[in-house]
Design a protein that fits this description.
3 strands, 3-stranded mixed sheet, about 75% helix, about 325 residues, mainly alpha
């Protein structure tokens, strides 16, 4: 039975949902439609949330597409740092687009339904891009380390071939991690259909399974732990060397300039890893559903919107490229 706090269901929904549960329970089949609980239990907030997230998604699309276009059109930004930033914008754009459009549709729908195939596809591509995001931020930290600590060898170490290889590794890690986790989720039988979340994520889906999810939980812990430790350790070591090199610079102006090249990246790293670690590196009983939703919203919709803003507002080269592009358009 649908809980009353999720809003008054229609007669069609009351007959449809129990039927889906019964089919899953009797056949132990995963081939059922799921119901997405959404962000709120208050129907009167649906339109307000729709407008809010439509605005966020619009800014995300404009910001990340604009950053990619800006880097492509300006020769002075054709450097390894901006090559990685362009790929970060692509990742942000993709993994926000995996979740937000469906969430917007559900804000205006009475039956917030997603098919089994659609749910598993959403999970797969979300994991691809969220893992890739972590590794892309790590590659960018390594790039800053080479630029500040090995400036004379920068063009040799960060050659076009090396940059392309690093980006390829980023996407490969995303594909491998997502394939492992989604493959395990596909093998689970599901007896319930109500996902108490606004998209198909691993933790809410595991709660619907008819069988033990121990193998999935252990694999999730090790995959998430491995990716987090590798990326975080690389970022921390890179910035340890960066800080040491900055402190050795004799002039305050030089130290300030060196730090400015890293500040935007540090802000992006802190936001991403803070929210992701809160979601996945904790026991399931530690936080409430509301806290998990807030953390999820932050790293699935807010961070992809903020990243291009952070890099454009705090970067003189990007500001100069924007002004140059605008002047070119006016002329």
């Amino acid at each position: 039975m649908v809980r009353p706090e999720w809003g008054a269901p229609s007669p069609e929904f009351l007959t449809w949902a129990p039927k889906q549960r019964r089919m899953a329970a009797e056949n132990h089949s995963t081939l059922v439609d799921f119901i997405l609980g959404g962000l709120t239990r208050r129907p009167e907030l649906q339109l307000t949330l729709f407008l809010l997230f439509l605005g966020i998604y619009t800014v995300t699309m404009i910001g990340n597409l604009g950053m990619m276009t800006l880097i492509g059109l300006n020769a002075q930004l054709h450097t390894p740092m901006y090559f990685f930033l362009s790929n970060l914008s692509l990742v942000d754009l993709c993994y926000s687009s995996v979740i937000t459009p469906k969430m917007l549709v559900n804000f205006l729908s009475e039956k917030k339904v997603i098919s089994y195939a659609g749910c598993m596809s959403q999970l797969y591509f979300f994991l691809v891009f969220v893992i890739a995001e972590g590794y892309m931020l790590t590659v960018m930290a390594y790039d800053r380390y080479v630029a500040i600590c090995r400036p004379l060898l920068y063009n040799i170490i960060m050659s076009h071939q090396a940059c392309s290889l690093l980006v390829a590794v980023v996407y490969i890690m995303g594909l491998v991690g997502s394939t492992i986790l989604t493959g395990l989720m596909i093998q689970l039988p599901y007896c319930e259909v109500l996902i108490t979340h606004y998209f198909c994520d691993i933790l809410p889906l595991m709660k619907l399974s008819c069988s033990s999810t121990y193998d999935v939980e252990v694999t999730l812990f090790f995959v998430t732990g491995f990716n987090t430790i590798v990326t975080c350790l690389t970022v921390l070591v890179s910035y340890a060397f960066i800080i040491y090199s900055i402190l050795r610079i004799s002039t305050a102006e030089g130290r300030s300039k060196a730090f400015r090249t890293c500040s935007s990246h540090l802000a992006a790293v802190g936001m991403f890893y803070g929210s992701a670690a809160f979601m996945y590196l904790k026991p399931s009983t530690v936080s409430s559903l509301a806290q998990e939703n807030v953390a999820s919203v932050f790293y699935t919709t807010v961070i992809p919107m903020l990243n291009p803003l952070i890099y454009s507002l705090r970067n003189k080269e990007v500001k100069a490229a924007i002004q140059k592009t605008l002047r070119r358009k006016v002329v």
